[in-house]
Amino acid sequence: MPAPTLPFSREHLRPGDRLCAAVSGGADSVALLVALHAANGAKHNALGIGLSAVHVNHGLRGAESDADQAFVQELCTRLDVPLHLHHANIPDRVAEARAAGTPETVEEAARNVRYELFNALITSGQVDTVLTAHTLDDQAETVLMKLLRGAWTEGLSAIHPLVTVSSQPAAGHSGKIVRPLLQIRRTEIVTYLEALKQPWREDSSNTDPAYTRNRVRHDLLPHLRQYNPSLDQTLSNLAELAREEESRWQSELNRLLPQYLLPGKPVRGGGRAVSTSPGGSNSAIAIELERLRPLDQALRRRILRAAARQLGARLNFDETARLLALCGFLTIATVSAKPGATLQLSNQLLAERSPRELRLSRTSR
User: Fold this and answer.
1) How far are the Cα atoms of 72, 84, 162, 182 from residue 132, in angstroms, in the given order?
2) How open is the CA angle 14-20-23, to the nearest 5 degrees?
3) If 0-12 CB within 10 Å is exposed, 13-18 middle and 19+ buried, where does residue 341 land?
4) Are 310 and 264 in contact (CB under 8 A)?
């Protein structure tokens, strides 16, 4: 009987790549490492790659986390796969972030630690590609969570199959993060591992209802599948459509924005004043209202949000609507479109209406 295989995507894998699989010890990541090792061939190097693994001990579950680490170490030793091991203290990081006024949830902090490590492995030149074991189920859960939070199209693109990682030009190292299991269901993962008699670790926090993803996974999605048994694939398809839409819009915005965004403020006699002081209130962008007037509302929204992003701020739906009202392109009772009117938005973003322009600037805390 032939050995079982896992049909992971090889689209972004190239001969000669130094691949590093992120392995938590859970079923998905164990399957990814085992499948890569089997496909490469312990002796014949069939994929033509160098393979290593990376594991992060987040310091969140005490002895259970240590047992996960020991499991991954044993697995990598058995497969003769080099392991990059990293220890983190997520509770301390969360406390420090809160004290600094830049709070992170435990989930956010753990994810940020992992991706900081992945980026460091790539930009330091140790690996070319980090692979994570996100599945179609993960994609469906993420899209649904984004919908519940009111994400824009870029948010609905959810988990990307490929993320490019670039370093500073002087370092000369760049690479990518790849998700080769995004079209594979979690049930296929389990079937594959059981056929191999390959054990894995179960993370007890994956059943904790305190985490939104767990409630979506165990409560909401099973209920919604009663209405659409193919819901997971449908949500994954939505992510792909959103990703393509965003890519198309970004190309268009890259072409159009230089025609619409003006730096600083106009000065008497012509020209514009631009502050260069670090943290100054005049990291500013202006948009001539008459240039926005002939555009459709979809493009106006895109231009306003892109202008805010250039100042390091992200606008939600309501803030974008209020900016449109400030410009006179939408009616909101609480927003004036008269010259001199202002709006204080999140991320210290200040919007000012002049007779001819909308001006956006970042204010100090």
Assistant:
1) 15, 14, 10, 10
2) 135
3) middle
4) no
Gyration radius of the chain over CA positions: 24
- 18: enclosing H helix or E strand: strand 18-22
Distance between CA 184 and CA 137 in Å, rounded? 8
Q: Which residue has the tokens 């490492």?
A: 33
240-259 per-position pLDDT tens digit: 999 999 999 999 999 999 99
Instruction: Confirm if 131 and 39 have CB atoms less than 8 A apart.
Output: no
| 280: confidence class by pLDDT, cuts 50, 70, 90 | very low
CA distances from 195 to 2, 3, 41, 180, 190 (A): 11, 9, 18, 20, 8
pLDDT in tens, 89-111: 999 899 988 888 888 888 899 99
Q: Which two tokens stand for residue 58?
A: 């987040």
Instruction: Name the token pair of 85.
Output: 């091991």
How far apart are alpha carbons 45 and 175 in whole angstroms? Answer: 21
Give 19's contacts (C-beta < 8 A, 6+ positions apart): 13, 36, 49, 50, 51, 52, 127, 128, 129, 130, 131
**Looking at the DSSP assignment, which residues form a beta bridge with residue 273?**
265
Domains annotated on the chain, with CATH: 18-246 (3.40.50.620), 264-362 (3.30.465.60)
What does the block give as tokens for 40?
């490469």
Decide if 15 contacts 44 (C-beta within 8 A): no
Please tell me the distance from the alpha carbon of residue 48 to that of residue 50, in angstroms, as a whole number.
7
User: What is the rounded average pLDDT of the residues 114-139?
Assistant: 96
The pLDDT of residue 164 is above 70: yes
* Higher-confidence position of 350 and 97: 350
